[in-house]
Design brief:
4 helices; 14 strands; mainly beta; 242 residues
Length: 242
């Protein structure tokens, strides 16, 4: 078991999140545009039929975990696993359906200094400080993210149908990149109280540079899927450079 020192505190691995809330919107975007955004990582976007890619926007409220309470917003893309051989659309679809793909975390603003230092120092997650106004306790979930007074995103998620809970959680590889290094972290998730629906998301983009970047992806007005998780537990292993 490894231990990291973060701002004078010891953090033992794996890091456990015992309770969090989350809501998210998943979009189909042009694969070429998504690849331009993630090129710096050296990873390849998972390509779906019609030259599309998967981009997810998520608000998370961490209530009980080893890094303390904090809010987080993520912009992520489904990517090919770094060990996978070149694959066509059918191979990418197979990887997506069998959990053989990875998730690249492109943006990850938070509102806490300790989780900022831990995220960057332990896993290489691109955490930055931002301002949050998020409601996770209503039937309609709503999150607003700003940085330096500039609006980045305003996201509303409407409730869908209950999703049956898996007996076992899902495990996947999360990728990150800062300071010229791409890393891979094994991430275990155990969601319960999940609801999902096609569409169901309302997104407004602000004047911040990150909002302009999201516009460059050509996000459609209608989301592929909107979902919310009432109870989310997670486990993060150590990161490995790839």
């Amino acid at each position: 078991m490894s231990t990291h020192t973060v701002l004078g505190r010891e953090v033992q691995m794996p890091v456990r999140i015992r309770l969090a809330h989350a809501f998210m919107a998943t979009y189909s975007v042009p694969a070429a545009a998504a690849q331009r955004v993630v090129d710096y990582s050296g990873l390849e976007i998972l390509r779906l039929p019609g030259g599309r890619a998967v981009c997810t926007l998520v608000f998370v409220d961490y209530l009980d975990g080893d890094l303390g309470p904090y809010n987080e917003f993520g912009v992520s893309f489904m990517v090919r696993h770094h060990t996978a051989a070149p694959a066509g659309t059918l191979g990418d679809l197979r990887a997506l359906s069998t959990s053989g793909a990875g998730v690249f975390i492109h943006r990850l603003p938070v509102d806490g200094e300790f989780t900022l230092a831990a995220g960057r120092g332990i896993w290489g997650f691109p955490k930055e400080i931002a301002d949050f106004d998020a409601r996770h306790d209503a039937s309609v979930r709503h999150g607003v993210l700003r940085q330096n007074g500039q609006l980045i995103v305003d996201l509303t998620i409407r409730p869908g149908l209950a999703v049956p809970q898996r007996r076992k959680g899902s495990s996947f590889d999360a990728y990150s990149h800062i300071d010229g290094v791409t890393r891979c972290t094994q991430w275990q998730m155990e969601p319960s109280g999940m609801r999902a629906r096609p569409g169901g998301a309302e997104l407004s983009l602000g004047e911040h540079a990150w909002a302009d970047e999201l516009r460059s992806l050509g996000l459609p007005k209608r989301a592929l899927m909107a979902s919310m998780v009432d109870r989310l537990a997670m486990t993060f292993q150590d990161a490995t450079p790839v």
